[in-house]
Amino acid sequence: MVSQIYKKLDGWPAIVVGVLALAGIAYFGFHTYRNIEVEKTNLLAELETAREGNYSLLQQVRERERIIDSFNAQISKISGTVGTLEKLAATDEELLKKYSKIYFLNENYAPTKLTEIDPKFIYTNSKNTQIHTDVWPHLKKLFEDAREDGVELLSASAFRSFDTQSSLKSSYVFTYGTGANTFSADQGYSEHQLGTSLDFTTPASGTALLQANDPGYKWLLENAHDYGFILSYPAGNSYYKFEPWHWRFVGRDLATDLHDAGKNFYDLDQREIDTYLIKLFD
Length: 282
Ligand SMILES: [Zn+2]
What we know:
By secondary structure, the protein is of the alpha+beta class.
């Protein structure tokens, strides 16, 4: 067979044979090249499809992330609300009540927890040396800061039970007759029974209770709100006798707002006061 081809080629100029051979190689090369090109185009198309697929996957992932984020936000909002409700449920709402001759504290009421006031802040021989446990850190800071300012404040009387109050009032009635109603009326009663109020004095005052001309009184007027305390019965109030010594803890926010607005606790609506309950001990 090969010899037959050679025979047929015999007589063809060698150059023609060479050209044919080269043409064959070129044809084969071109085919191979085209195949590679087609394959390359296919691969690029596949890559592009894959890229598009990836992009769409990425978009789906992002969309899911957005949904999860929004769920998380809702969950934390709900748990925040639950936390607020729990905090509110745990806060004794009597602690911000206004007391009067028509609304007073139940005689069986007792604070949930009481703490002994540090003896270095107690007036000599004073009884009634306990304060509401959550009020104590605020009161302690008040005592300490006043001393740093050179004002020595002391507690003359803090928590008083209903029984202590009753016997105190009857002793006032005994001493002062019916005038005792304006001296130790039902309002003052309730506030001491809460465990969040106290009567201040200073060693310098020379009396058992702080007076309006004592430097300690001036210091309290300017600073007590920073520690959450207010003067329950200020000078010129319409509901009770002026008691410069008697201060009640109502929380920093309420005390500061009252101070800044120049208002008295007993002038506010109970509904407005109640909005501060949640932040009472902050
Ligand atoms: Zn008092």
